[in-house]
Amino acid sequence: MREVKAKMEHPDAKKYVTHGLRKNATIELYEACGDDELVKAVTGHSSIEMLKKYGGQVRQRVLAEQAQEARNRMERNKTET
User: Of the four, 1, 35, 57, 79, which is 20 to 30 A from 65 by CA?
Assistant: First the structure.
């Protein structure tokens, strides 16, 4: 982590902490894919409970959007048949 921070050009890079970077990665991954197992694979979290803690409202929003999309697809399929 120190090597990565040393290469960063942002003036505040030295202030970054691993915890904050991991939390931000968790949020960005949820926004990108919304899959608990994929997020865990990248961030190294051991449980869904930790993902809930770090992903928080973003995780909830992404999962809700995915559920609603699935519901809409189901409804469209019903009307097409």
Answer: 79
